[in-house]
Specification:
about 375 residues; Rossmann fold; six-stranded parallel beta sheet; Dihydrodipicolinate Reductase, domain 2
Length: about 375
């Protein structure tokens, strides 16, 4: 029986507990939060053996095999390092760490101790994402990817989070180097990082505060981001984050030398994009039928999964957690490679460094013009 503990008892912890309870061969032995009421409410609502307010007390008393860290990002590094020091495997909610150097240190420490790490990029393990990965691995693209596009939208009208952030100048998200972006974009960046090699990677980032936020006197939060990535002259990618773009997208497109794929995470749809075209006017009629058939096929697949009770909002999280546990118990490969984790962290570092530099340049230019 795998003994599991959770550190951080906020909203996201509920999702972790619910999915862990779906997995055979494990039990939640303890939860921890600095706020005793938070720890106690989670303990009382689920079949959990104990609760703590101190991380070291939990590690010493409960002796978990695996720890899920669901605290705010700035605490991830220290907590994970302590858990690894106590011989625990660690699942860290996104973003993995605040800085890429911290990610490197955790990976190095885990490898030196024979322990395992993963990060909560659960969207990459949804049913539709797994179908896409199988097609890529089967050679559907016709070779290595040539270009990718990742879109990640965020609704700032969400009352449970965004309004609290915008109304609180001391909110913990504002203290992150990348602020709102740092807490969100790793999902979209990781989609791209999965298919990068990391050789000669160049990152160009441009971000700004939307007119909507400026109208409410919000000038700190960057909510519009555009990024170009390039691996020499072999592979390019675009990443778009937007709070204003409509329709709101959570999409990933990947193109190879023969064919492409479109993954629509919002609607759990995967569309094959054939590289060959029909002759003459046939190209104006036949593809519409082909795409219609694919959309209906996706609906049928999703309905079958729903009827089997395997189509729920956190299905990707369950698959990721279960795969991570299997890698611990059975020696199976990690669900997310360390290469991908480190690439994602490095890309995010580069983005936030460029945004900070761009801000300073704009301020300097404005001061010069004022003279």
């Amino acid at each position: 029986m795998l003994k599991v503990a959770i550190i951080g008892c906020g909203k996201i912890a509920d999702g972790h507990v619910s999915q862990i309870l779906r997995i055979k061969g494990c039990e939640i032995v303890a939860v921890c939060d600095r706020e005793v009421l938070m720890a106690k409410q989670l303990y009382e609502r689920f079949p959990i053996k104990a609760y703590f307010t101190d991380v070291m007390d939990l590690l010493d008393a409960a002796r978990p095999d695996v720890v899920h860290i669901t605290t705010s990002p700035e605490t991830h590094f220290d907590i994970a390092r302590n858990c690894l020091g106590h011989g625990c495997h660690v699942y860290i909610e996104k973003p993995f760490t605040v800085f890429a150097e911290q990610a490197k240190q955790l990976v190095s420490l885990a490898e030196s101790k024979g322990l395992k790490l993963t990060v909560g990029h659960n969207y990459q393990f949804s049913h539709v994402a797994r179908r896409m990965r199988k097609l890529v691995q089967s050679g559907y693209l016709g070779g290595s990817p040539v270009h990718m596009e990742s879109y990640y939208s965020y609704n700032l009208s969400d009352p449970s989070y965004a309004k609290a952030l915008l109304g609180d100048k001391q909110h913990w998200v504002r203290k992150l180097p990348g602020k709102l972006l740092q807490n969100i974009i790793s999902h979209g960046v990781a989609r791209i990082a999965e298919f990068l090699t990391g050789d000669g990677l160049q990152v160009i980032a441009y971000g700004f505060t939307s007119p909507l936020l400026k109208r409410i006197d919000e000038n700190e939060i960057v909510d519009e981001l555009r990024v170009i990535l390039s691996e020499g002259e072999r592979l390019t990618a675009y990443f778009t984050f937007s709070s204003q773009m409509r329709p709101s997208l959570h999409e990933f497109r990947i193109y190879g030398p023969a064919n492409g794929l479109l993954l629509d995470q919002e609607h759990e749809i995967l569309i094959k994009l054939p590289g060959d075209r029909f002759k003459s006017y046939a190209d104006k009629f036949i593809p519409a039928g082909i795409f219609a058939k694919q959309y209906l096929g996706n609906a049928a697949t999703n309905l079958k999964l729903f009827l089997k009770r395997d189509f729920h909002m956190d299905a990707g999280m369950k698959c990721l957690i279960e795969s991570f546990y299997n890698s611990i118990r059975d020696g199976a490969p990690l669900p997310i490679s360390y290469r991908e984790i480190l690439l994602t962290a490095g890309i995010m570092d580069s983005i936030f460094e460029q945004l900070a530099n761009n801000t300073r340049q704009v301020q300097f230019a404005s001061q010069s013009e004022a003279r």
